[in-house]
From TrEMBL:
GO terms for molecular function: protein methyltransferase activity. Coiled coil: none annotated. NCBIfam families: CbiE, PRK05787.2-1, PRK05787.2-4. Pfam families: TP_methylase. This is Cobalt-precorrin-6y C5-methyltransferase. InterPro entries: 4pyrrol_Mease, 4pyrrol_Methylase_sf, 4pyrrole_Mease_sub1, 4pyrrole_Mease_sub2, CbiE, Cobalamin_biosynth_MTase. It comes from Methanosarcina mazei WWM610. Its EC number is 2.1.1.-. The keyword S-adenosyl-L-methionine applies. It is an enzyme of class 2 (transferase).
Amino acid sequence: MLKYKAGKGEKAMIVVGVGVGPGMLTEEGIRAIKKASAVYGAKRAIELAQEYITCEAKTIKDYKSLHLLPADAVILSTGDPMFSGLGKFAGENDTVIPGISSMQAACARTKVNLTNLCAITAHGRDFEPAKAELIQELRNGRNIFLLPEENFGSLEVAKILKELGIEAELYTCENLGYPEERIAKGSPDNPPIAETILYGLLVVQKR
């Protein structure tokens, strides 16, 4: 049974992770969506949850104005809200319901253990901080799951690996969960090339 708490007179937003692809929405998320009196999200997030939405669903146009939405609004976030998702906008009294992230799905497909994995995102921002973090974590012996940027993806990461003298397997993971899902494997000398801009990159160091 779901219980959402808010302080007296305060609005409580519910952020639901709808998963990275079809069929990856949790039962907890489904219950929250079915109970919702107002649902908001990006077009793809709404499509992933459509069969469970019983009220009007509206597309979010300004993510910085989420706090202005109606009390107890359900906000849909693709993947997991706390992995480069809308969970970052949740306040102390809001509720975040996890979803299956692109990182989880990619690791399941490639059978890579999550316990030595560092999640890094460069998507939609200056990639230099992500690059610096990636180099540091590679030197620490960590495997990497990267959400790339257009100018910082598999080719750039392969170059870094060669400069560091690190042997690794690289996987580009596209459209996870969809019929057109595509996972390509390569190496620093022959890196896989993604066919779309939106993909996840796994870097698995050879021990």
